[in-house]
Amino acid sequence: MKVFDNELMAAVYCEETIYEIVRNNKEAVLCLAAGHTSLMLFDLLKKSEQDGRIDFSQVKVVGLDEWVGLSGTDDGSCENFLRKNLFDHIGLQESNIKLFDGKADDLVAQCASVMNFIKTHGGIDYMLLGVGMNGHLGLNEPGVKADSVAGVVALDVVTQKVATKYFKEKPELTEGVTLGISNIKAAKLVHVLVTGERKKEILKRILETDETSEVPATLIKNDSNVIILVDRSAAE
């Protein structure tokens, strides 16, 4: 675990990591969580490309998760969040973006397609995750199996409640589609970003609890490719 004085310094560390990865591999595969935790990093990445520091023109991006029933420009969808806050402002090629379509008729085929994209491009080089108030990663909810792969999941009550902050009108969310714990474990480098005072209780639980599916983040905390990044507010 790495502790930073504030959220900005943690985001800078993530940006510097991505810079090095893309500098060494212009076709690197990134997986970036949609959510408020990512916003500061997204701002840094936009500025990095504007300044000519990072070239995203050949970078590949794969989605982490999506709400079932939503996609594209739908209010509150993960895709809309990523495009509005990052993708639309950097030089990603549309053909290099692979996201889950929560409206697809065949969600199992969607999952297979996303995993095939990852495999075709040599695996995920860098993954940024936030942690839910219930310890979820992506939409891997409490009770998830440690060997889960991309699939459709039932949303925990806590997730359904917290998710309302992303929507103008309260949505009816019961399911999600997400990369699984195995997909996360297979990434070459994973940063789990935990910032803000409101995350200190779940951070404490993650650090003090043995690996258990009831707190999904504990399932990866001891992996050598995973680094938990926290600010002082969360680390109290």
Descriptive notes:
This protein is an alpha/beta fold. The protein has one domain: Rossmann fold. 33% of the residues lie in helices and 16% in strands. It has eight helices and ten strands. It has helices spanning 7-24, 39-50, 78-85, 107-120, 157-162, 181-186, 200-208, 232-235, and strands at 2-4, 29-32, 60-62, 65-67, 97-98, 126-129, 151-154, 175-178, 190-194, 226-231. A seven-stranded parallel β-sheet has the order 1-10-9-6-2-3-5, with helices on both faces. α2 (39-50) links the parallel β2 and β3 (60-62). α1 (7-24) packs across α2 (39-50). The model has no long low-confidence stretch (mean pLDDT 96).
Identify the notable features of this structure and list them briefly.
236 residues; alpha/beta; Rossmann fold; seven-stranded parallel β-sheet; three-stranded antiparallel β-sheet; 16% strand
Which helices and strands appear, and what pairs or packs with what?
Blueprint: E1 2-4, H1 7-24, E2 29-32, H2 39-50, E3 60-62, E4 65-67, H3 78-85, E5 97-98, H4 107-120, E6 126-129, E7 151-154, H5 157-162, E8 175-178, H6 181-186, E9 190-194, H7 200-208, E10 226-231, H8 232-235
Helix pairs in contact: 1-2
- CATH topology category name: Rossmann fold
Beta-strand percentage? 15-25%
User: How many structural domains can be distinguished in the coordinates?
Assistant: 1
Number of helices: 8
Largest sheet: 7 strands, parallel
Sequence of secondary-structure elements: EHEHEEHEHEEHEHEHEH
Q: Report the structural category.
A: alpha/beta
| Second rung of CATH, namely the architecture | 3-Layer(aba) Sandwich
Distance from first to last alpha carbon:
14 Å
Radius of gyration: 16 Å
